[in-house]
Write a structure and sequence with these properties.
Radius of gyration: 28 Å
Number of strands: 12
CATH topology of the largest domain: D-Maltodextrin-Binding Protein, domain 2
CATH architecture of the largest domain: 3-Layer(aba) Sandwich
Shape: elongated
Distance between the termini: 55 Å
CATH class of the largest domain: Alpha Beta
Structural class: alpha/beta
Strand order of the largest sheet: 4-3-5-12-6
Order of helices and strands: HHHEEHEHEHEEEHEHEHEHEEH
Length: 300
């Protein structure tokens, strides 16, 4: 049976940590500004809660039990992190920070934005980490609950509980292998419709491309449906299928995949790509610093 945290007085954990560090009850009491009887009473309560003596009194001081050593390994770093987080004087310092920034997006962000962003971050903050997770329908909730720091998405949320900023504007491009037998110049509308296409999964929200392809006279022949942009490029490079992708993605990776980049057959308005985050993050200096570098990585 798991321990019920409601039965644990969390104020006892700093007492436990102080005894581990000091090795004596009197020194631990001094470090916490408590009396020795109060420290002894706190230790007795913790022993009862955890069902372990935790410390054995010897002529050399308080010797921790194996259970106490195991607890201390797990708790000491977390208690230190809590102190740092709660200390108002402890502001974000990029050069020493080990902050993990969590971004919800897809492999467009990983392929187009992330490499440049990491180069910028490393020059100021060599120890920060960027973690990318797939953005799904639960994206707003994951931002509200701070499970993620921000999201990069082509769909503008209508929920006013989220902050929204245009990160960049993308144009659409058509990619095909360099020696494609039917595409030797630009891609006409008829060539576009005659070709087999590699596409991404359908989503509940519609992009400008979806609006065009739902008009009369526009109907793609789907040859393959894949999960990410990288798979679209790889499939086109080894077949006669074509794909419609963001222009930046095509320009950066066409040579690596042996592809050529062609204009979309008709004029399509640039597609905004948005940066989304919860308002609670506005007061976080680390979050503001990260957002600023993210914006500069696509504009500079």
């Amino acid at each position: 049976m798991k321990l019920n945290l409601r039965s644990v007085d969390l104020n006892l954990l700093p007492v436990f940590d102080a005894i581990m560090e000091a090795g004596q009850l009197s020194r631990a009491a001094d470090s916490l500004g408590m009396s020795q009887p109060a420290i002894s009473a706190a230790l007795q309560r913790l022993r009862h809660t955890l069902g372990d003596p935790l410390f054995v009194r010897t002529h050399q001081g308080m010797v921790p039990t194996p259970r106490a050593r195991e607890l201390h390994r797990s708790l000491s770093q977390q208690l230190g992190a809590m102190r740092d987080t709660l200390d108002p004087a402890n502001r974000f310092v990029p050069g020493t920070s080990q902050r993990r920034f969590r971004v919800l997006s897809n492999d467009y962000f990983e392929m187009v934005v992330l490499p440049t962003l990491l180069t910028r971050l490393r020059s100021e903050a060599p120890n920060v980490v960027v973690e990318v997770a797939l953005a799904g329908d639960d994206m707003p909730q994951r931002l509200y609950t701070a499970e993620a720091d921000l999201a990069v998405d082509a769909f503008a949320t209508e929920n006013d509980r989220l902050r929204r900023q245009v990160l960049l504007a993308e144009r659409l491009a058509v990619v095909a292998r360099k020696d494609h037998p039917d595409l030797r110049g630009d891609c006409s509308k008829q060539q576009f419709l005659d070709a087999e296409h590699v596409v991404l999964p359908d989503r509940n929200r519609r992009l400008p491309l979806d609006q065009i392809l739902n008009e009369p006279g526009w109907q793609r022949r789907t040859g393959a449906r894949v999960t990410q942009f990288a798979s679209m490029l790889a499939t086109c490079s080894r077949s006669d299928m074509i794909a419609t992708v963001p222009e930046r993605l095509a320009q950066q990776y066409a040579r690596a995949f042996g592809l050529k980049t062609l204009p979309f057959p008709v004029e399509v308005p640039p597609l905004p790509v948005y940066l989304l985050w919860a308002p609670v993050m506005d007061s976080d200096p680390a979050h503001e610093w990260f957002r600023q570098h993210l914006m500069e990585s696509v504009t500079g």
